[in-house]
Amino acid sequence: MANPIQISIVIPVYQGEKTLPKLVGELIAYNQVQSTKLGNPYVINEIILVHDCGFDRSDKVIEELSELYAEVRPLWLSKNFGQHPATMAGMASATGDWIVTLDEDGQQDPSYIAGMLDEVVSKSLQVVYALPTNPPPHGFIRNLFSVLAKSIFQKLSGNVMSKYFNSFRMIDGEIARTLAAYSGNGIYLDVGLLWVSSRIGSFPVLLRDEDRPSGYSYSKLMSHFWRLILTSGTRPLRLITLMGFFSILIAFFISIIALYDKILGNVPVQGWTSLFIIISFFSGAIMLSLGIVAEYLAITMSIAMGKPLYVIATKPSRPSQNIK
What we know:
- The structure is a single chain.
- This protein is α/β, with parallel strands linked by helices.
- The protein has 2 domains: 5-217 and 309-321, Spore Coat Polysaccharide Biosynthesis Protein SpsA, Chain A; 235-304.
- The protein has helices at residues 20-28, 58-68, 83-93, 113-123, 140-157, 173-182, 189-196, 218-230, 235-263, 271-304, and strands at 5-13, 34-35, 41-51, 72-77, 98-101, 127-132, 169-172, 200-205, 312-313.
- Strands 1, 2, 3, 4, 5, 6, 7, 8 and 9 form a 9-stranded mixed beta sheet that branches.
- β2 and β3 (41-51) form a beta hairpin.
- α9 packs antiparallel against α10 (271-304).
- The longest helix has 34 residues, at 271-304.
- The model has no long low-confidence stretch (mean pLDDT 80).
């Protein structure tokens, strides 16, 4: 038998106190060499649990799991950096030929890893995303906004692969480690993968019910979406230029109508209403433009000043030490 493909599992942990034992128990079942349907031998050689400093006792559970299973490797972050930086930290520390990222809530079924491996090997892919065939268990409104967010990003970036974005992914180990090593602060992981990989695919999966309520509030999801837009490239800045161009056209059109009514139609043109509309429109356009440019500058300044994407500590940050 050929040497088995080594697979590293990376799980960013924020509120995993109740869900991690069950999930890790499922993953440990694959710590012996097994074969996929297409005959590819593989083994899960490590499970990296990245503690992102949540407010439950995930740290204690991670310590217990690492003592119980040799494959479990704890990774302690110095503070809460967020899901994507935590995932990047885990990828940078992973040693496998392929890296699989999973959420901590039990929604994603590890049994699909073998099928995802067959997909990347048979089609020579660099990244494969799990493609849910059933709606996520989040409710209609949240699922609707998720679809809209991906659609907006696809239009802005011009990349059709963005429709596959999912936290359940299998990534070529070299690509994942390189991306994690060179990414700056504020990077959206999936956008970074688009920068460094071209062969991207998907694999159909069924989502399970979450073992706990989602840790993402609507404000956090909005922040997540805004980071996605800002790291999509310069297209939003081009939209500002287009918006300015169309604003000029609208102003020119309004001027033509006003002159026509005044000179040829003998219609008195009321100044206050039109003036108020024009000032409001252009003021809003200017403020929106300045806001988008300011967001880009903030990201650039963070990178220029050396703000780290994540910092790894030697011991867990206990809940009592976190500032709420």
